[in-house]
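Posting for a labmate who doesn't have an account.
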Amino acid sequence: MSYGMQIYSANGALQLDTTDSSHILYQKHSSGTSSAITNVGTGSGSGYYYGWQSVTVSGFSTGEDLVFIQPTGSADVKAYVMPTSNGFTIFSNTNVSFYWYTFKKVTSLSDPTSTYGIEVYDASGNVVFNQDVLAARIKGRITGSGSISLSGKSLYALGTFKYSAITAAFAPRRGKIYGWVHTWNAARDQVSFGSAYISGQGYQASSEGELDAATYIDNSLVSTLIVEAPDP
């Protein structure tokens, strides 16, 4: 190989190969701090729901870009992310702002400005690794319920979104909605993941048939990634 770089793990598995597009590297595209979450419903029944805050990202590609978030403070903050055509929306049970990063697949980066570190080029002369650009440093993966704790580290969670269950109740009551969410501790060095009650605004049913038809349960396990990154 006359250009690029290959990196192997201790057991000989190929981790990075700049000549193989199937080994994908993600580096930072954008970052920032959202406005504080608003409209949190703290009542009971249909009066309980997560608040939200939308973030617009220039050049965002839905389904391709990775979004990672972290609350700026406060204990026991739960949150999930829903992508949009020009960014994403953060939903949370707490009126708090969030740090966020988006990462893109690396195809061509700007030339490095620092005079130290590593820069890697592909066969066409494109910069495919730039030490000046933050790379996704994965600290762990959770499938289903679980948690990752790294004392003193600043942990961000992947913007995973999926409903786990939606139930119905006879009108005028409403059913409940459950989804996969992340929960941070106050130090933001521990992230838990699992299904949680996120809204009391499920379906209303007027018959037994509607009650059965409106109930949705998904038992599949969702995976998430936890990364370490500095505050934007």
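Reply:
Got it, the structure tokens are right above this. Residues 6-228 form one domain.
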